[in-house]
Known about the structure:
Elements: H1 10-28, H2 32-40, H3 42-53
Helix pairs in contact: 2-3
Amino acid sequence: MNVLPPDDGRAVSRLLDHCSDVSRVAQARPHVRERLEAALGGELARRLVGALAGDHRLPARDLLD
């Protein structure tokens, strides 16, 4: 489906304003790792990220036993 933008350009201007606002907020916040380390400490943050990022698949079971 092809939709043409409005001729007055207001929609494009608003979209650019919203994109600018989002990028400013993203730049202002510290990185998630820095926030986690500040809240929990370096060692606990490292262990938590390792546990969350690990392989959590169940091991294959031998159904013939």
